[in-house]
Amino acid sequence: MKTISIKDKAGNFAENKDVARELREGVLLPALDAGEGVALDFDGVNDATQSFVHALISEAMRRHGAEVLDRIEFKSCTPRVRKIIAIVVEYMQAGM
Fold first, then answer.
1. Is the dihedral of CA 53, 39, 47, 15 positive or negative?
2. Distance from C-alpha of 4 to C-alpha of 12, rounded to nearest angstrom
3. CA dihedral for 72, 33, 17, 62, sign (positive or negative)
4. What pLDDT, in 10s, does the model give residues 64-83?
5. Which domains are delineated in the chain?
6. pTM > 0.90
């Protein structure tokens, strides 16, 4: 399983969609396309915007379907970050 440290790239407030895109295109999608699992490690991230999380995971869900969530682990999330992830996942599933 490949681990992506969100704090290393986005800091303690994950808001920059360009950073999310870089993580998505550079690490997340290539790993998922190769059949690997990915751990998105939010350790040290206090909060994230909905647009950041959407930019990070929405293309993976479009490309691989909602079942791709079985291969993505969201680690060390604060309750606020976990809520944002849940909102984005629900929104994406409603549109599929």
1. negative
2. 14
3. negative
4. 999 999 999 999 999 999 99
5. 2-94 (3.30.750)
6. yes
One DSSP character per residue, 12-55 reads SEE--HHHHHHHIIIIIHHHHHTT--EEEE-TT--EE-HHHHHH
Give the Cα separation of 44 and 81 in Å (integer): 11
3-class SS at 75? strand
Closest CA to 38 of 85, 70, 64, 13: 70
Q: How far apart are CA 56 and CA 64, in angstroms?
A: 14
Residue 96, pLDDT above cutoff 90: no
